[in-house]
Amino acid sequence: MKRVWIWALCLALLLGGCGGSGAARSEDVSRELFAMDTYMTLRAFGADAAVLESAEALIREIEAELSVTTESSAVYQLNETGAARFSSEAAELARRALALCAETNGALDLTVYPVVRAWGFTTGEHRVPERGELDALCAKVDHRQVQVADDGTVTLPEGFEMDLGAVTKGWLGERLCAYLRERGVESALLDLGGNVQTLGGKPDGSAWRVGVRDPDGEGLLGVVEVRDEAVVTSGGYERYFTDEDGTVYWHILDPSTGMPARNGLISVTVVGAEGLRCDGLSTALFVLGQERAAAFWRASGDFEMLLVTEDGRLLLTPGLAARFTPDAGLCYTLEVLSDVEN
Ligand code: ADP
Ligand code: MG
């Protein structure tokens, strides 16, 4: 937890310097909170503190509905009973998330939750499940079996469970931006724990500068310039454990095997206009690995990405390379992905 705070502080310092006082528009308010199992920092310009207070209330409301561990939540009820009525917003979130599961061919799969639990990532009581146990659990992993009815009722087959955790923070970023915009805010920076969402640019008109963490240390890979976009990173370094013989197991699982995804990547950062898509893709592309992630990017073309490989390379899409400043002491070989497969 301490590391998380230090990291959040670094990011805040890096992004600091709103420039000038005086004009109401450039005065900022900020609010720190702990929700959805992570530290969040909301920073908005031209708003008063009450706006962020109600934004926090909105976060808590969303968490109360979507938490997989809170007994009163809709998701908890769904997992207990196989059916639950979601609010229209949460149902829409589920529909979009399931569409992304389909688009990634199940690299993202909301029903992988029981497997995540078997590894102990939900409680911190880590263990390595036997192959037989994983096979039995994987038989009940299939996002295509989740039904979302028009009235918001979500249903699951017997033995299935679902968790929206892989996309909730990204979606929350979108939701908070809409909320702030409705209240006249035109410039905000929301750090939702690994998910950064920007609203507009900085009050002086320049782009936000968002640091991308080095998966292999405490420093930064570099800084990306963004406006009205989300920057989401998924990495093996975020949550993992090491067994007696030194093998590292991390929390991003390949739904087809039930094992931690090991396809040559140690971190994936996705930059794009839709927070939910960026969040879900950062997990999915991590599972897919470099080749398939590049093919996916070429086919969709509505996001930018930065991949860090196990063998020390940093791969950037051309659109991101143009607005990425590498850290001075960067120890990776920088490569720009080609628009066409070579
Ligand atoms: P975090 O929530 O830790 O920032 P991510 O957004 O990358 O991380 O989502 C990873 C979380 O989603 C894991 O902690 C796990 O609960 C779940 N998860 C792991 N692998 C997958 C997967 N392939 N598809 C969907 N959810 C996954
Ligand atoms: Mg994610």
Describe, in plain words, how this protein is organized in 3D.
The chain is an alpha+beta fold and 342 residues long. 35% of the residues lie in helices and 26% in strands. Strands 1-2-6-7-10-15-16-17-19 form a nine-stranded mixed sheet, sandwiched between helices. A hairpin with a 4-residue loop joins strand 13 and strand 14. The N terminus is likely disordered. It binds adenosine-5'-diphosphate and magnesium ion (MG). The site of magnesium ion has 6 residues, from helix 8.
Residue windows where pLDDT falls under 50 for at least 5 positions: 1-6, 16-24
CATH class descriptor: Alpha Beta
How would the global form be characterised? Answer: globular
- % residues in beta strands: 25-35%
Helix content: 25-40%
Order of helices and strands: HEEHHEHHHEEHEEEEEEEEEEHEEHEE
Small-molecule components bound: adenosine-5'-diphosphate, magnesium ion
Q: Write out the CATH superfamily name.
A: ApbE-like domains
| Distance, first to last CA | 43 Å
According to DSSP, the number of beta strands is: 19
Structural class by secondary-structure content: alpha+beta
Whole-number total of structural domains: 1
CATH architectural name: Roll
The CATH topology is T-fold
Q: Biggest β-sheet: count, sense, barrel?
A: 9 strands, mixed
DSSP summary: helix tally: 9
Rg estimate, integer Å: 20 Å
Brief descriptors of the model:
single chain; 342 residues; T-fold; binds magnesium ion
